[in-house]
């Protein structure tokens, strides 16, 4: 994600009110969940309106793969329909065009992240424990959905100083609440002497980048290093590194760094 785009977007989020209504052009399903859509059974076709949840989930799952591989400009709706085992008419019944489908994918990606991390950010945990749990949940969500960073990265890099309505809605609806909660946590931790004082505008993008960059560059690492960065062994090692790295950068109590990071194993508190 380009540094200049992130800086301009963060400034805009701070200046803009949160009560602007969403402008999504997607036919939303009220039962939409942030978790990954259930994969279509091999060879199954959902090419009618009689299986709306299965059809919509299959389309979203196929769209994630297509957008991750080709971006919104290069993605083809006929390829998405074929991978989802639906016809194009049904795809356009649920999503009026490719932009609407991409926006639905963004909602799916970021609503899932929000639902994963907001409960811990809203909890009464002490800042040190809260930070480690937040990082662990964030990492686990991306590890379970490693294509997600590539789905959105190219679009964020194309966002100019003024942004675009689609991406700014996503930022207001999903990013801003998380950003504010994390900033509050960092300030509280500094006031309690648990964290060294940091500027959230500097520290939060760096913290998230340690997670996101690993997964967005996984294909290149696999080629260059001749290892599978998404193997269970490598994922576990990377998760441990991320928690210890952030703890070392932020915690004032050196003795607490390895102990707190170790307690937050994959899946939550040990």
Please describe what this structure looks like.
This protein is mainly alpha-helical. The chain has 2 domains: 3-20 and 110-263, Tetracycline Repressor, domain 2 (Orthogonal Bundle); 27-94, Tetracycline Repressor, domain 2, CATH 1.10.357. The chain is built from 12 helices and no strands. The protein has helices at residues 3-15, 52-74, 77-84, 88-94, 98-121, 127-144, 148-158, 165-191, 200-216, 218-225, 232-250, 256-263. Helix 2 runs antiparallel to helix 3, helix 6 packs antiparallel against helix 8 (165-191) and helix 7 packs across helix 9. The radius of gyration is 20 Å and the shape is globular. The chain starts with a helix and ends in a 7-residue tail after the last helix.
Give the SSE layout:
Elements: H1 3-15, H2 52-74, H3 77-84, H4 88-94, H5 98-121, H6 127-144, H7 148-158, H8 165-191, H9 200-216, H10 218-225, H11 232-250, H12 256-263
Helix pairs in contact: 2-3, 2-5, 2-7, 5-6, 5-8, 6-8, 6-9, 6-11, 7-9, 11-12
